[in-house]
Request: fold
Amino acid sequence: MKQLHPATPRRRRAGVPGFGTAIAAGFWLALGTVALSLPAGEVHAQAQAEKPKPPKLSGPVRKKLQPAQQAFDKGDFDTALTLAQEALALAKEPDDTVISLQILRAASARKNDLMGFAKYSEQLLALDALTGDERKKTEENLARIYFQQKDYAKSRQWATRWVEGGGGAAALEVLAATYLIENDCKNGIGPFEKSLEGREPTEQQLRTMNTCYLQLEDKAKRRATLETLVTRFQKREYFIDLLNSHQDAQADSRAVLNLYRLGLDRNWLWRESDLVEFAIMALDAGAPAEAEKVLEFAQKSGSLSTSTNNQQLQRQAKQLAAEDRKTIAALDKEARGGKNGEADVKVGLAYIGLGEYQKAVDAIRRGLQPDRVARVRRLDDAWMTLGIALSRLGNTAEAAKAFEQAKTDARMAPAADLWLKVGPTVAAAPAPAATAGG
Reply:
């Protein structure tokens, strides 16, 4: 085959989501989630229930707290706050401080003064006056309040304590958010991953993982995440990112070619650089008719520029495809008469390019027969090509069996696995208008 040297296709990366607003949206912490721990009228009752004896209050403090409690019960929270603050300033006994802080915290919460609620909650926690579920809920409230206030260091402090106290996935999620909102994947990805254990991530959560793995250069985890995004949501941007990641890892060229085939079947290849590179790889594989169709598609969709290299590539693909059309019948007959499985597979590949999928299936299956298969150079590619031809015939069950065979070779596994997961071929939809060279 005459070798061309067209311009190297320009690599593009689909945009990856940033942090800040995008990640914060995934961790929206509503003010309404901060609940009053001490309901109205129960401040003294709870204090008494937690102690074998009634709280020991000094006389001056009792004179302030009794009317403070009465004002609280009537809904006069401003008066309750004023009296409780005066009581706190007079406190001498431990219970003076605790009961004053309890009323201050409860009144602040009723006024929706979350920073006041946080202030008094922290003081109660420092006194070890909150225990059990009440302590855990307060740590949660503090982590959420400070996150909303964009004080991520303090939110992280309380989220960490919440996690340590058995807060589970919700606590881990908030802890992770305090790092991710500041673009700190190194510290955020661990709790983020743990928060998702045992449940299926949302699309936004997977996008966050993709962004972090890209930042951390964790190529294996990023590819696995992109494969999940492509499989579950089947969007072009995820496919292009996945394709780029395989190319960056210098994946097997035949595997990349088969990923391009999937991309075209799914109408995920719109831009010139994708389509030109696909055509070059098809020519190199011995499928000029396929290259010709790819370039025709690119031209009709407005994706192909009229550069000298592109015109030369089109002429070569057209010339070699015409030769295939003239000689394919004779080549098929010759392959049938021999025992060279490689010749059969090449004929099958040519038939795929020509759109004659049943003939492609017949030729490749012939090449995979026991008396012929020993000459086949790339069994994985033969099985992969067979699966694609069967898929385009609508025979998804047999196609899946072929892809499973191709998957046993590590070189072809990424492409075969994606064909299996994404499913059968869909009818191509018109590609959106694209700028040549875009």
Remarks:
- Confidence is low (pLDDT under 50) at residues 1-51, 426-438.
- Residues 21-164 form one domain.
- The two ends are 29 Å apart (CA to CA).
